[in-house]
Every structure is written in structure tokens, then in C-alpha cells.
Amino acid sequence: MKDKLRLIPSIESIMRSPAFESILEDYPRSFVVRALQDEIEQLRQLILRSEFKDDLIKVVDFVRPVTERLSASIRPSLQRVLNGTGVILHTNLGRAVLAEEALATMRQISSGYSNLEYDVTKGVRGSRYDHCSDLVKELTGGKSALVLNNGAAALVMALKCMSVNKNVLVSRGELVEIGGGFRIPEILECSGAHLVEVGSTNRTRIEDYAKAAESGNLGAILKVHRSNFNITGFTEEASLSSLIDLGAELNVPVIYDLGSGLLQDYARLGLPTEPTPKESLEMGVDIVIFSGDKLLGGPQSGILVGKEVEWISKMRRDPLCRALRVDKTTLACLEATLMLHKDPDIAVAKVPILKMLSASVEDLTERATGLCEALEDATVRVKSNECFSVMGGGTFPEFEIPSIALEVELPGCSPDRFAEKLRHLRVPLVGRMDNGRLLIDLRTILQEQDEQLINCLSGSFS
Fold this sequence. Notes:
Layout: H1 2-6, H2 11-16, H3 21-26, H4 29-48, H5 63-73, E1 82-83, H6 100-110, E2 118-119, E3 124-125, H7 133-140, E4 144-148, H8 151-163, E5 167-171, H9 184-191, E6 194-198, E7 203-204, H10 206-213, E8 218-224, E9 236-237, H11 240-250, E10 254-259, H12 277-283, E11 287-291, E12 302-306, H13 310-317, H14 319-323, H15 328-341, H16 344-350, H17 352-358, H18 361-374, E13 381-392, E14 395-409, H19 415-423, E15 429-430, E16 432-434, E17 437-441, H20 450-457
Parallel strand pairs: 1-15, 5-6, 5-8, 7-9, 8-10, 10-11
Antiparallel strand pairs: 2-3, 4-12, 11-12, 13-14, 14-17, 16-17
């Protein structure tokens, strides 16, 4: 064992060898030293475990593994992925794809100074909270608006400013768990409000809210849209209008955590009808909360809209608001996305999430035919198949959207193993397994990505 350890050449001798000249030209010396140290340590461990069987260790044997280590070390951990899963708002893959206009605006604002907190007209300090507010109010009909860094942050802020140390009524059927294991009761606790569970999991009547309110010290009524699951069968829930009437009777505000926050016509996109922020405010909800990176198609953000000015003004003055505020790139991206939503036709044409939703099966079929023809000579076997896409991102649970997928097969390779190979490409391609078949759903592959998809599936995969 010790004899084999002595076979390992020194780092200096390896780096002086002709085999490493090109590597040292391509990478800083310190990077190469670190990669060599890691590779040699791995080799030492193999020898100590008696797993290294060779009797000779050559300098040239270090070239490939060290080059691979160096290449991996400078590759960003956050990288572009082709989403062939058919999950439109795939939380693990970054949710909403941003519009070109939003990307251009982000670059423009980020590449120089901006009026983030400066009033150029008056020459005095301004407020970042003013950006996007007018657009949000215009699109929702609200009288005040605030943008924070995500939906959970927005809910915490609302509860802290409207119900701290007071009771908040919420149906047991709406105590949802969101991504990462976070639950509404835990978020409520962070705000300093006291949760009062109302009714049962499957049935909550307005009388249950009224009875729970009798305990006193009431701060607000909270309604949470069940965006990531359905309750079916023997069910009942209090309507939003009845909660608004009860809130008015008890003189307490109603908060509606709407979740997805689509600003366009549901019917036009073929989606089930849900309350919009505008409709909710018109009904009398005091504060509506929705996400920027779901059906709005913008950046991660939590948007609060007020029926009046009072509550949003209080939130803007709260010290927690600074901790939850968004940066200039988020505001730039959101503002550009909201501008697109001012015209429904432009929004559907230019917001990628809405483009995916509105793509017809006929258009997807035509693309699939072209892709199959382009891959006729590839090693991979490709054919078109009907399938279903889903919304994802905690929106429209169980709602399926007819779609078209490429069923891909690599001869001599199992579907699971081929899926792994595709995930290890320079630009990872993530598909989905369906009854033992590997599918690439074209609804979540943008048409401008078709050439890249062809490149991914044209490899030898040896």
C-alpha cells in the first residue's frame, strides 16, 4: 500500500510536464493546483482502500480528470434548463419564464445607476415602493399597492400590520402547505397574529366564522385560495361575499391570499374560472395578495393591493418592510411585465407563460412533425404522442391541458437511464416519465428553443 502511495508524482512535477502546458494556458495556476490536490487525494483514498489495482501512475493520467474538475469548477451552479416536463409553472425549474421586454429592462436598469429611490423631478430622495404601484392599481382597480419579495412575505406583512397580537379567523380547509414544507399556520405565527381555526377540513360555514368571532380580540378574517389542492365530495365553504359582509358587520378587514393572480381573461386561456384581484377588490376585500411569478408571468414577488390606502400605508412604514423589500432588478422586471398586461393581446403574445397556455394542439402537432423529421437520422428514436400538461406552481390542481409530446427512446438504454443522460447534457433537458415512456412535452419548450432541443437529441449518447 505504501509502495503505491510513493508512485503518486508530486504536484510540481505534474505541472512542469508537457501534458499540462495547455491546461495552465487555459486556467489560473491556483485553480490547477487545487484541482490536482483534490484528484491526488481521491487517488490516495483509493489506494488506502486497496481499490487501486494499477502498478504505474503516469502524469498523463491526470489530464482528463483534472480538466473535468476545472471545467466543473468554473461552471455556474445556476444554469439554463430545457423544461420538457409539461409543468408550466415548475417551481423547481424557476416558475415563470420572463418576457424579452422584461429581460431587456432588467439589463438596462442593472447596467447603470437608476432612480430607484430618487425623485429626479424634485431632486430629493424618493421611494422604491412607488415603482410599479400605479401599474398594479391600474390593472387591479385598487387604491394602493405594495411589492415585496414573495407571496409568503406579503402575507406576513399584512398580518403583522393588520392583526398583530390579535386573532385571525381562517378555515381549517385552507390551512395549506406550500413548497418547501412551509405551512400557513407557521407563517401566521411569524407575523405575531394568533390563528383561530374555523370549521372542519371539508365543511366551513359562515356561521362557524361568526361563532369563532365571539371569542373577541379579532384582528382580521383571512381567506386562503386553495391553489395547490382540491377538496371534493361532502364539502361546503363560506363564500367570499359572505366573509366580506361578516367583516363589515364586525368592523374587521378581510384579507384574501389569492395566490396565482391572473390579470387576463380565464376563458380566453381555456382555464377554469377563479376570482381575479380586480373582482375580489370590487366585491369589497380589503387586501388582496398574489404572486408575481405565477400566472402574471413576472419575477418572484408578493404583491399586495388595497381597497383603500390605510393598510398599505401602514405596511410601508413598518420596519419589516425594509427587510422584505425587492431590489431594482425585480422592480424593473415586474414593471415591464405589467406594461405588457395593459393590452390583453400583447400579454398573450409576449408573456411566455401565457404563450404556453394559449398554444393550440394543432400548432404543437406541427412542431412535433418538424422535430421528428429533423431527427430522422439521429441515434435517438422519436415519435409524436398526445399527452397532458399541467399548470404547476400551486395553481389549478388536477386541471389538465391537452398537449403534444415527443416520445424519445435510445436503443439499448432504459428510459430512466436515458432521462439521466439528458439531464447531464451541457444544457440539461428534463423530461417526464409516463407509464415507462420518456416524454418531452412541447408545451413547455418554447418554439424558439426547438433548434436547441434538436441539438440535445442529436448526440451519440455513447
